[in-house]
Each structure stands twice: as C-alpha cells, then as structure tokens.
Amino acid sequence: xxxxxxxxxxxxxxxxxxxxxxxxxxxxxxxxxxxxxxxxxxxxxxxxxxxxxxxxxxxxxxxxxxxxxxxxxxxxxxxxxxxxxxxxxxxxxxxxxxxxxxxxxxxxxxxxxxxxxxxxxxxxxxxxxxxxxxxxxxxxxxxxxxxxxxxxxxxxxxxxxxxxxxxxxxxxxxxxxxxxxxxxxxxxxxxxxxxxxxxxxxxxxxxxxxxxxxxxxxxxxxxxxxxxxxxxxxxxxxxxxxxxxxxxxxxxxxxxxxxxxxxxxxxxxxxxxxxxxxxxxxxxxxxxxxxxxxxxxxxxxxxxxxxxxxxxxxxxxxxxxxxxxxxxxxxxxxxxxxxxxxxxxxxxxxxxxxxxxxxxxxxxxxxxxxxxxxxxxxxxxxxxxxxxxxxxxxxxxxxxxxxxxxxxxxxxxxxxxxxxxxxxxxxxxxxxxxxxxxxxxxxxxxxxxxxxxxxxxxxxxxxxxxxxxxxxxxxxxxxxxxxxxxxxxxxxxxxxxxxxxxxxxxxxxxxxxxxxxxxxxxxxxx
Length: 526
Ligand SMILES: Cc1cc2nc3c(=O)[nH]c(=O)nc-3n(C[C@H](O)[C@H](O)[C@H](O)COP(=O)(O)OP(=O)(O)OC[C@H]3O[C@@H](n4cnc5c(N)ncnc54)[C@H](O)[C@@H]3O)c2cc1C
Known about the structure:
The protein is α/β, with parallel strands linked by helices. It is built from 17 helices and 19 strands. Flavin-adenine dinucleotide binds next to helix 1, strand 14 and helix 15.
C-alpha cells in the first residue's frame, strides 16, 4: 500500500459497482484507487466459504441483470468471466408434487392450453414494455424542472420510448404500471403455481407483497434489466459470483486502477463544501479530486460525510430513505445432492422457487408488517455446484437460498431468533426435499441485520434503499440529486442506492463514472 500517491479519483467500496466505476474511470485515463473494507472484493456479490472447501454465493447467486455495456466495454470475457450456466429455467414447486417449469415463453408440466397461450401473450407484452425502459437503466436520469437541453432531451426520449409502444400498448402500460401484480396476474392467468412464481419475481428484493401497488413497476424494472442480458438469461458465473468480481477487478487493474482490500474509509474529508480526501480507519488521509461512494446513501451521508456538512432539507431527504431489508440468505453445505420430490437432476440445476400461489407470498409479506418473519417464507434456491463442481469437495454440494420475508427490525430481535428462523426456513424447504437436514455439514444464515454488519449495507437492503415509485429514477436516492452528484462538490454516489438501484447490474457504477467524466471534477482529475 502506497500512501503517498495522489489519486485523481478514490472509489469507496469494492463491490461490483465500485469496481465497475473504478474501471470506467481508469479506462478514461484517471488515476484511480478503489478501497474496500472487507478482505474480499465483491460486496453482496462475493463468495463465502461456509464449511471447509464449500464455497457459497454470500448474498447474490444469480447473474441476470449485468448491463451489456459493462460486459462489453470492460472486456469481461477477456478478463476471465465465464458462465457455468445460462438460461436457467424457473421450477415453480407445487405442494402436491405437480411442479411447473417456466423456460422463457415455454411452460412444462400439467397446465391448460389457455394458460400457456395467456402467458405467451402477457410475456410478450411485458417484454416490449420492459424493452422500452431498458435504455434508461444505462443513463444518467434527467433533472426535474430543469431548463437544460440535455435534461429535456432525456425526458423527450423517455416519452418517445413509451409512445413508440403504439397507442394500445402505451395505454396498457399506463394502466398497469401502478397496479399490484396480484391483480394483473389474476386478470390474465389462472394457474396458481405460475402466478405464485411470477408474483415472487415481481417482489423479490423489494419491500412489497404481490398486493402492494407498484409491484408491477418493480416487475417491469426487473424485466428491463433482464432484457439487457439477451440470450444469456439467468446465469451462474464459473467460480461463483467471485468469477464476475475477479474479472471486474482484472479489468480495472488492466486500465491502471489500484485496489486495496481490508481498507475501510472512516470519513470523507470535506473542506468548505468540497470533498478533498478520504480518511482511512488506519488514520491515513488520502487527498483526491473526486470521491465516489458505493456505500449506501445513508451510510455515505450520515456516517462518512456527517450531518454537519449537509443542509437540513437534504438531510431530511436522506434520513427519509427507506432502507430496511426484507431478504435473508440461507447457505447450506451438503455431503451429497439433495433430493426434491418430483425433481430430477436436470430440474435441480434450475432456479427452484417456493411460492406455490400468490396468497402464500402475500401472507409471508403480511407478517413482516408486524415485525415478525414469515412462518412460511417465499424462497429462491440454486445449487451452483451442479454447474461448477469446484465449489465443493468431491460429491458435496452447496444449496443457496434467498429467503423472503425476514424484516431487518425483527420485533423479537435477531440475536435470539436467528436459529429458530433458519429452522423454520429448513422446514419449508424440507416439505419439498425430505431428508435435506441429514445432508448438512455446514450452514450459514444471514438476516438483514447480519447483512448490514457484514456488508456495511444500512438495513441490509438488497437495493441499498427501497425500489418504489418515490425512490426510483429521477427521485433516487432523493429528489433533486439523481445525477450521481451530491451537495458536496467532488463527491458522487456510484452504488445500488443510486439509479437504477440494486441487483448485479454494474449500471450505477458505469453511469456514475460517465457523470464524473462529464464534469470538471473528472477533467481536473484526468
Ligand atoms: C440476500 C440477497 C440476495 C441477492 N440476490 C441477488 C441475485 O441473485 N442477483 C442479483 O442480481 N442481485 C441480488 N442481490 C442484490 C445485489 O447483491 C446488490 O444489489 C448488489 O450486489 C449491490 O452492489 P453494490 O456494488 O452497489 O454494493 P455492495 O455490494 O453493497 O458493495 C458495497 C461495498 O462497499 C464496501 N464499503 C462500504 N462502506 C465502506 C467503507 N466505509 N470503506 C470501505 N468500503 C466500504 C462494502 O464492504 C461493500 O463491499 C441480492 C441481495 C441480497 C441482500
């Protein structure tokens, strides 16, 4: 570590967005340092050894939203990114063993022709709408009420994208966009398994249930990200999520960026209204022209900058960001392949979903309103070792489960209830996979409170802050500051808390880098 070099830009956080941001800045010729508090890069998209030789995806386990420009411009393939699996189907489990496989437009299992046709129609329509939204994920949002031609042009483009859907589809878009996904699905489809799995897709990672208004918007948002992944679909990188992180780090280094792990930033040093340096927990102060923070907005402003440097209006906005997470993680190290009733090995290699109907997901969500975790959670399971045997000792497997709903603020407190929660999740999975518990040789449970502590994400939130109509696009993270800049000159946001939100997209990092490069901070730093 060389403390005496002065960097043009310092990126706080070596999660995937921090790495993407640092790589784009370095590619443009800036001298860049990325500092990561943890000993391992990747943030919520890193691997974790959960038992000797068993490597699980710590939080994120499916790669399906990576922005195509991130993949192409950072030359991730050249830097080692390989996919162990792509186009994973979704297997919607059914309590009676009548499981349904969703493979894009195709449905496999016992299901009516009417539902097959209705799903194709609905999917086509949603993908067209998502396709219209996709370009805006990779752009800096416009300013509201601004006179600048750039902002106006962007708003015109947005209106045109929706207009280009055609009159009928545009009306339909405006009709459904604020609806709840349960109503939409009930209008269109009748199969309970299909509706359950799709409703779960719409709310995964959000603080919504299927009956929450806005859950169609979050579904479209997810689909807009998936549109960019083209034919790759739901994928698992070779080497787990670390496969992606290592490729990003290699790309950043190839452009000259330095990366320090095990280096936590204690404070962003502000002089006047300008960020001039970062102070490390070691006490080292590193001066720079631009600071980019991929820590969540609350942590960035309330902890690293400090309220004393912010005006009350902005501070109120930041304090108002809703960022209490609802998703937990259960990772299992198994001494053999688990058996799920009615699923063969090929089906086990898919994305397995426990959300047998809409009511199941909604009931699970309901309980969190009263500070409890779901008695019967909705769960997304992958078994990455079926695609990449290097992640476990010979014959062993890893089961990765994202569990919704587990509230950050559990009324009874997580310390005393973490194990009971994990046991409850196990019961839910064992209903479909009897005997699973006997195979366990190691278990890792991460509640949102654990995610907050281990990954430094306020509230342990998937998106660093709710994705909802009032915290999205031009309003993210707070109204008036959606362009990655902040009231502190020279300080920018570049993580999931900024537009377009979380998921392993790299879009926030890429957009933020472009924004910096278009300002005088980027030019001075170059
Ligand atoms: C349980 C769970 C499951 C998920 N599953 C999926 C999935 O399957 N697919 C998907 O696409 N998305 C998934 N997500 C969402 C996705 O993981 C995140 O949205 C994404 O990883 C956020 O990336 P980021 O780089 O913006 O932030 P982070 O990954 O949070 O990275 C920020 C980094 O900054 C570091 N940092 C913070 N403060 C400091 C400091 N003061 N000094 C130095 N470093 C600091 C942190 O240590 C961290 O490494 C999941 C999220 C959760 C919680």
